[in-house]
Amino acid sequence: MASKVPVIVFSEESTGPRTKSWMRACDEIVQALEHHGCFIAEYEGFRPELRDPIFGVAKELFDLPHETKVRSPDSSYSKGYIPHYPGTPLLEGLNFDGAEKLDACEKFTALMWPSGNARFCKAAYSYASAIAKLEKLVTRMVFEGYGAGKYCDSHTESTAYVLRFLKYKKPGEDGGNAYQIAHTDKTFLSILHQNNVRGLEVMTKDGEWVTFEPSPSSFMVMAGDACMGWSNGRIKACYHKVDVQEERLVRYSVGFFSYNTGKIEIPKELIDQDHPQQFKSFSHLDFLRFYHKIDGHTKLQSQIKVYCGV
Ligand SMILES: O=C(O)CCC(=O)C(=O)O
Ligand SMILES: [Fe+2]
């Protein structure tokens, strides 16, 4: 996969703002997102104490009784609890907003474990706050890579995050074998991490599906529909799916999703003769509302052009 989807190393050196290696990394990220809609982040700052507990607590969360899991509240961005739907019988998910903030983690933990679960709270908060840092860094690098850095602070100030835990039962269990059907995310950026069971596949520019290989410090960073709109269509939302082949293994993954709570303006730096304006400014939340009203399979294709294309 490394030859197909670029791997970008986030080290202290490459992420020190305005060094030569920073500018090079900004450029690499923009190139990767324009060509593939995604890249693999090798995140050196993601220490073992952040990563080791996350899949253990994911298991604990899914082991809770159904009537507890459904307490996870829906939000403007996502459903709280994703049950085993008939079309995706092996998949189950739980989302919660604002996990990068300790109070939101405490609230969610208390909802799931009224008598407390400090281990879950600490693991979710440490994970989400570390990945929020990565998301902010990538966003800044994308903005600066396009010479639109001056808009980054206001974008970041109006960014909300959702942490999603996903569990995929073993292939064949309960008579099902459907996982995540191919789709684009409705996010600005999505950052995905998985346990040692492969399953995530992304479509490259040449229409080929490539499998993301699990590794404790690797993250798949993908552009969502909102990033495609913001970039005036220069970045394509990443088309991806999940297909678990490894028998007898349960797959857990953790997604970290960013959404803009305000209006997304298309920077004038991204519009020129070679790139005429393709998108109108839009509210990310209104786009989500529009998307939720769409029925059927068209939902799986990127809808941003339909929503606010010029
Ligand atoms: O489980 C994964 O790796 C992918 C999850 C995904 O595509 C999603 O939640 O939108
Ligand atoms: Fe997705």
TrEMBL record:
Q: Which SUPFAM superfamilies match?
A: Clavaminate synthase-like
Organism domain of life? Eukaryota
Q: Name one Pfam family in it.
A: DIOX_N
In what residue span(s) does the Fe2OG dioxygenase domain sit?
A: 159-261
Q: Which InterPro entries match?
A: DIOX_N, IPNS-like_FE2OG_OXY, IPNS-like_sf, Iron_ascorbate_oxido_reductase, Oxoglu/Fe-dep_dioxygenase_dom
Q: Which UniProt keywords apply?
A: Dioxygenase, Iron, Metal-binding, Oxidoreductase
Give an example GO molecular function: dioxygenase activity
| Homology family | Belongs to the iron/ascorbate-dependent oxidoreductase family.
Task: Report what the protein is called.
Answer: Probable 2-oxoglutarate-dependent dioxygenase AOP1
Q: Which species expresses this protein natively?
A: Rhodamnia argentea
Question: Which gene does this sequence derive from?
Answer: LOC125313749
